[in-house]
Design a protein that fits this description.
With 508 residues, this protein is of the alpha/beta class. The protein has helices at residues 16-27, 45-48, 80-93, 183-190, 217-225, 227-249, 256-269, 273-279, 296-300, 358-361, 395-416, 426-440, 444-447, 469-475, 501-507, and strands at residues 5-12, 33-36, 100-101, 106-112, 117-122, 125-134, 156-159, 173-177, 196-200, 207-208, 291-292, 305-308, 312-316, 319-322, 327-329, 332-335, 350-351, 380-382, 421-424, 484-489, 496-499. Helix 5 packs across helix 6 (227-249). The chain is globular. Belongs to the FAD-binding monooxygenase family.
Length: 508
């Protein structure tokens, strides 16, 4: 990285959000940008998560960019290696590699009020940027609980997102901690080869069958010959999920039928009444993410698997101890305990206009205007920001909506002209967040009786969008300058001046 390099836009992260932002910037005619990536390759969470059995629980044709359809998906639900390969192809097809700075983890981003730009310190050097697009994603930094004695465990310890491929689990006694989306894929993948598998389950998930199959050669030939069929397939998948949203957001009682399907799915594989009782959730389906698997329950029914209905509370030597006192000797511990979602580490590294970090600003809960802009952080746009997550559909849909917003943000800066920045008005952020939280009150995520990773330390849902993806697309179609303060350099002053409403209207 060149010393004192300055770019128009700095994108942080090269997963779906970062690569999508890069493509959109090029389509807007902007080539003066860099993508800062902490690893040595693209892919984000689909690079980092390479554990056995890793796959997506959203159908392939919906879990891809609308502007980069893939007619050659091999399965209806694609595995990690296929999704990562897709992102590599997107990088090459849209000629993004010259813009990417690998091994350039962001250490600090500080807003320079005098120059109206961001000063960015990375592992490979420093640079400045007029606009920062933060696309680090909520599923990027693994969370491992603070277990007494963990640092003295003599065996192998790793998180699902940092899988140790050099450690052979075959014939080993393994503790699997957690029962989320990663764990239900890991368990059936490793169960046949380990000598003993102990699953530490704090809360049982609701699990529906994963209706996966190979996509035939004939289907792929059809999609290649007639691209319209790919769009129709994607549209059908999207429409079905849009119709499901009301049950999650307005009428959670309608999900009872889905619960019965999940219970029948369990009963087919789990014949032991005691084990079935352990695995039956006591909260409304949908409150936590509904998981898809056709081999999780069969794996748990095998004789080399024990399910401990309680979290891991202590480790003494090679003995793992559950909350109920159950003790087991193991050779390895695998954590499937999720990520820092409501306390994203990147927030500690972003310093805004008043000298506070984003983490300090968000200490009472994350909030951003239309999921994109935080007050006090001018010319900073986040992809997959607060309350943009989904519980039943594809996050690529939400990413593309936020890319629309980012693109119009750039256009508004062009229209305003000169050295200029936009800072979300605190009143606009509060109003947006109030509307979101009011809608959230009726949703299954807030009323379903569970404690999920959607909720922050204060019990507030700062993660999920309480509506359809179509609604979010309309809400983020363009930037409303009335929701922002326009900042310009102040003559004779080291700080930027905030343009009044009247002056702003005259400028526009």
């Amino acid at each position: 990285m060149a010393e004192h390099e300055h770019v128009r836009v700095a994108v942080v992260g090269s997963g779906f959000g970062g690569l999508g932002a890069a493509v959109r910037l090029r389509r807007e005619g902007i080539t003066d940008f860099v993508v800062l990536e902490r690893a040595d390759s693209v892919g984000g969470t689909w690079r980092d998560n390479s554990y056995p059995g890793c796959a997506c629980d959203v159908p392939s044709h919906l879990y891809s960019f609308s502007f980069a359809p893939n007619p050659d998906w091999p399965r209806t639900f694609s595995g990690q290696e296929h999704i990562r390969a897709y992102l590599e192809r997107v990088t090459d097809v849209f000629r993004l590699r010259p813009h990417i700075r690998f091994n350039s983890e962001v250490k600090r981003m500080t807003w320079d009020a005098a120059e109206l730009r961001w000063e960015i310190e990375t592992a490979s050097g420093t640079l400045t940027a007029d606009l920062v697009v933060s696309a680090t994603g909520p599923l990027s930094d693994p969370k491992i609980p603070d277990i007494p004695g963990l640092d003295t465990f003599p065996g192998a310890v790793f998180h699902s997102a940092r899988w140790d491929h050099d450690y052979d689990l075959r014939g080993k006694r393994v503790a699997m901690v957690g029962t989320g989306a990663s764990a239900i894929q890991i368990v059936p993948a490793i169960q046949p080869s380990v000598s003993k598998l102990v699953l530490f389950q704090r809360t049982p998930p609701w699990v529906l069958p994963r209706v996966d199959r190979a996509i035939s050669d004939a289907e792929r030939r059809l999609h290649r010959a007639l691209p319209l069929t790919t769009r129709l397939r994607r549209g059908l998948l999207w429409g079905i999920r849009e119709l499901q949203v009301q049950a999650f957001t307005k009428h959670p009682g309608e999900l009872g039928f889905v619960e019965q399907l999940a219970k029948r799915n369990m009963a087919r594989a789990i014949k032991d009444p005691a084990l079935r009782a352990k695995l039956t959730p006591d909260y409304r389906i949908g409150c936590k993410r509904i998981l898809l698997s056709s081999d999780y329950y069969p794996a748990l029914a095998q004789p080399n698997v024990d399910v401990v209905a309680g979290g891991l509370s202590e480790i003494r030597g090679s003995t793992v101890i559950a909350a109920d006192g159950t003790e087991t000797e193991v050779d390895a511990i695998v954590f499937g305990t999720g990520f820092h979602v409501t306390d994203m580490p990147i927030a500690e590294r972003v310093v805004g206009a008043d000298g506070r970090t984003l983490a300090e600003t968000w200490k009472d809960g994350m909030e951003a205007l239309r999921g994109a802009s935080a007050a006090g952080f001018p010319n900073w746009v986040t992809i997959i920001g607060p309350n943009t997550g989904l519980g039943n559909s594809s996050m690529i849909l939400m990413i593309e909506s936020q890319l629309n917003y980012m693109a119009d943000y750039v256009r508004q800066l062009e229209v305003l002209g000169g050295r200029v920045a936009l800072d979300a008005r605190p009143s606009a952020v509060r109003a947006w967040n109030h509307r979101v939280q009011e809608r959230m009150k009726r949703t299954v995520w807030n009323t379903g009786g569970c404690n999920s990773w959607y909720l922050d330390a204060n019990g507030r849902n700062t993660t999920i969008w309480p509506g359809t993806t179509g609604e979010f697309r309309r809400a983020t179609r363009r930037v409303d300058l009335g929701e922002y303060e326009v900042l310009r350099p102040s003559a004779g002053s080291p700080s930027a001046a905030r343009v009044t409403d009247e002056a702003q209207e005259a400028t526009v």
